[in-house]
Amino acid sequence: MGAAATRPVPGAALTLPTVGSQLHLWVLWHEWLGDRPEEMVTAELSEQEQRRAAGFVRDYERLTYLSAHISLRRVLSAYTGIAPGDLPLAREPCSCGHGGGQHGRPVLAGPRPLIQFSLSHSHGVVLIAVARERVGVDVQRVPSARTTERCIPELHPREQAELNALPDEDRPLAFGELWSRKEAYLKGLGSGLTRSPALDYLGRHNDGPQGWQVRNVPSCPVHVAAAALLSPDPMDVVARRLPTESLYVDDATQLIASERRVCPNSTTSSHQE
């Protein structure tokens, strides 16, 4: 599939990704946590988001959640021109087999949404993906050796063999990278972990299941991250840091649109929105 030219949306500050292969990533680093939490602009969040945030016992987890959802709304607003609090966020019907309902993959509601997106956050790091096609992202801390050994038997047999062939000291990082690829893909599908982790091979010798591109992407030193994109073409990633100040100002659109700090190891650092 060839990539079509990007096109602006009236009233938007950011240009949409190209059809098919291009993926925009926005990363909010953990160094902001605890910085002026009382000044975060939470009024744009839905009642459900605010209730969910209030349910976290630990301040660290609550701040991560709030920052992730404020960031998501503001990034999507910059692409669509819709005010953060007015974005028609919804969920697809779920096929998990547990009663159905609208608790599947998050989407912008509408018959033909302009963009697809995915959100992940873990231990102070927020990762947002924006694309034209179905997309999933995952970020998490590098797991411990104990967690690694406990989870390896749940994987695809070929993945188990690859990980068990590694030296003990290399296994946690390799497992973390693999697990982030698996979660990103399952989020892109919309099934999440209701689909068995053993069904799909996402090991080192595979770009992704048929029709998908799945790969690890830049993250922080103690985290691993991955993205999955529904595209037959190689994934073209533009990864940028999300300005910390975007959590606090009344209107972050131009602040986000003018950001040019490229994340380390981004393979497409020459791209500009």
Say what the CATH topology is. Ribosomal Protein L22, Chain A
CATH-scheme architecture: Alpha-Beta Complex
* Contiguous uncertain segments of 5+ residues: 1-6, 265-273
Whole-number tally of structural domains: 1
Strand count, sense and barrel status of the largest sheet are: 4 strands, mixed
**Count of DSSP E strands?**
9
SS element count, helices: 6
Give the helices and strands as they follow along the chain: EHHEEEEEHHHEEEH
Question: Can you give the mean pLDDT?
Answer: 85
Tell me the name of the CATH homologous superfamily.
4'-phosphopantetheinyl transferase domain
Provide a brief overview of the structure.
With 273 residues, the chain is of the alpha+beta class. The chain is built from six helices and nine strands.
Secondary structure elements and pairings:
Layout: E1 22-28, H1 47-54, H2 59-80, E2 89-91, E3 106-108, E4 116-122, E5 125-131, E6 135-141, H3 145-151, H4 157-164, H5 171-189, E7 212-216, E8 223-230, E9 236-241, H6 253-257
Structural commentary:
The protein has 273 residues and is α+β, with helices and mostly antiparallel strands. It has one domain: Ribosomal Protein L22, Chain A (Alpha-Beta Complex), CATH 3.90.470.20. The chain is built from six helices and nine strands. It has a four-stranded mixed β-sheet, with helices on one face. A three-stranded antiparallel β-sheet has the order 6-8-7, with helices on one face. Helix 1 packs antiparallel against helix 2 and helix 3 packs across helix 5. The longest helix has 22 residues. It is globular and about 50 Å long. The relative contact order is 0.18. Keywords: Transferase. One of its GO terms (biological process) is lysine biosynthetic process via aminoadipic acid. One of its GO terms (cellular component) is cytosol. GO terms for molecular function: holo-[acyl-carrier-protein] synthase activity; magnesium ion binding. Belongs to the P-Pant transferase superfamily. Gsp/Sfp/HetI/AcpT family.
